[in-house]
Specification:
Elements: H1 2-6, E1 18-22, H2 28-36, H3 60-64, H4 70-80, E2 87-89, H5 92-95, H6 99-106, E3 111-116, H7 119-133, H8 140-145, H9 147-160, H10 167-172, H11 180-190, E4 196-200, H12 201-206, H13 208-218, H14 246-267
Parallel strand pairs: 1-2, 1-3, 3-4
Helix pairs in contact: 6-11, 11-14
Length: 275
């Protein structure tokens, strides 16, 4: 309802200056909250607008309703005496095969921030998230074993219906989302590499002040620090799910090893997460 009321003013509203494109369960909640507190940032009305994935059929005017008016940014600029930016953070953007082209068409000059976490830890965190949301009733081992079977139909449907919402693909892509190089290459096809900052989630979690400063420098925002860096991605206890077996962890380690090597080669730095 709130965004419907904003529709008449969509032409007065800005598009995002930058996007946090993911990955899922990699710290995007924390980064969104930290960036949203910056005096030179006015964030979207919600973290995950999901326009370039599930809501693309809604159109540009709908997307603009999530961002501030140019007049509001002008008021903020006069107050802080600096450039003011807006943004959103949708973790599915990194993984969705059609998001890069869609984003490049609408916001070709946007800067992009991608957080990447150890893919095995990310897969298990993703699984726990699905359990908590009530979408997953298999054990982790069973979910990994059946991933291809569960997601293949949505991959096929996307080819025939690009505006469809691939819910099963996004929910159950535990291992596939850890193939980061493949996903980044799609974005690099549509955005210059100097427009994309890739950050290890572990650096953001364990050295937040330094890493946050590097992100601000990339976004050309003034140096600033929040009062604290709480990790909003920490798992909540008591979900009751069964953890991965040693065999499943070994299988995933073998699956991710060559993909981590591919990522390291793509980025020109070691991204092997200690393997």
């Amino acid at each position: 309802m709130r965004h419907a009321a904003r529709r008449p003013t969509s032409g007065l509203r800005v598009l995002p200056d930058f996007l946090v494109i993911g990955g899922q369960r990699c710290g995007t909640d924390s980064l969104f909250k930290d960036l949203g507190l910056h005096p030179c940032v006015v964030p979207a009305t919600r973290k995950e607008v999901s326009y370039f994935t599930r809501h693309f059929a809604m159109g540009e005017a709908w997307y603009r309703t999530h961002f501030p008016t140019r007049a509001r940014l002008a008021v903020r600029r006069r107050r802080v005496h600096a450039r003011v930016a807006s943004f959103e953070a949708t973790p599915d953007y990194l993984f969705h095969p059609l998001a890069p082209e869609r984003a490049a068409h609408l916001v070709p000059d946007a800067k992009l921030v991608a957080l990447l976490r150890d893919p095995l830890a990310r897969a298990y965190s993703h699984y726990r998230h699905m359990v908590r949301l009530g979408f997953e009733d298999l054990s982790f081992d069973e979910a990994i074993a059946r991933e291809e079977e569960r997601t293949a139909p949505d991959r096929a449907r996307l080819r025939d219906d690009p505006l469809g919402h691939p819910a099963q693909l996004l929910r159950y892509s535990y291992a596939a989302r850890g193939a980061y190089a493949e996903q980044l290459e799609r974005w690099f096809t549509h955005f210059r590499r100097d427009r994309v900052l890739v950050v290890r989630s572990e650096d953001f979690f364990h050295r937040p002040a330094r890493t946050f400063g590097e992100i601000l420098e990339f976004l050309e925002l003034p140096a600033w620090q929040p009062g604290a860096f709480p990790n909003y991605s920490r798992p909540q206890p008591g979900t009751g799910e069964r953890g991965p077996s040693d065999a499943a962890k070994a299988d995933l380690a073998r699956y991710f090893a060559p993909r981590n090597e591919q990522l390291s080669a793509l980025l020109g730095r070691d991204m092997a997460w200690g393997e």
